[in-house]
Design brief:
It contains eight helices and four strands; from the N terminus they run E-H-E-H-E-E-H-H-H-H-H-H. It has helices spanning 12-23, 43-48, 67-78, 89-119, 127-144, 157-170, 181-191, 200-213, and strands at residues 3-7, 29-32, 56-59, 62-65. The protein has a four-stranded mixed sheet, with helices on one face. Helix 1 runs parallel beside helix 3 (67-78), helix 4 runs parallel beside helix 6 and helix 5 (127-144) packs across helix 7. Pfam families: GST_C (PF00043), GST_N (PF02798). InterPro entries: Glutathione-S-Trfase_C-like (IPR010987), Glutathione-S-Trfase_C_sf (IPR036282), Glutathione_S-Trfase (IPR040079), Glutathione_S-Trfase_N (IPR004045), GST_C (IPR004046), Thioredoxin-like_sf (IPR036249). Homodimer.
Length: 217
Amino acid sequence: MGKKLYITWGSPPVNAVLMAAKALSIDLDLHELDLSQQENLSEWYLKINPTGTVPALDDEGFIVWDSHAILMYLQKKYGNGTDIQPKDPQKQTRILQFLNFDCGMLFRRMSDCLRPIFYEGHTNFDPKALDRAKSSYAILDRILKEDNFVAGDNLTIADISIFATMIAQNAFLPIEEHEFPSLRKWYSQLKSFDFYDAALKGEVTLKDGLKTKLKHY
């Protein structure tokens, strides 16, 4: 049956899973959903993912939805013997901490900027939402002054998840090196990994969408 991933291009959570899969050398059979036609709310897809969101993974009949849960599943099942799947429970907890940080703060602040543009017809960003999103840069910059990666010395799925969020946010709120040098260094380092290629189509799709939606871009 293989591993099917239900996606839409331009989605940061989809990009996170695509990059993690490439980092772990996992082949995925991609099934694109047409959100403009509300295919994600169709009866057949809601049986796979009751939330109607993307991505969702079908690994030979085992269904996982929510990108952070998918990342943890891929890490545990396919990451054995790699730095991306540490055995130390403290390191595992640190990874979980930063996945929750991405889900609960970073992604939410980024999506608070994009949602009005893509789904509510706004043609300019909300300045307060931009300020909240930019404050995430300051937090990450403090974290990355201490370590090369968010959860320690090695690349983990926490980096990949946060990187996917930052790719989207950097598209409309550039990470300036003079303001956030540690974050900018980490961001450039993540872009140098081969798995970044898996996010390029999604990144271009998001930027193209912003060009059509915003008054000035």
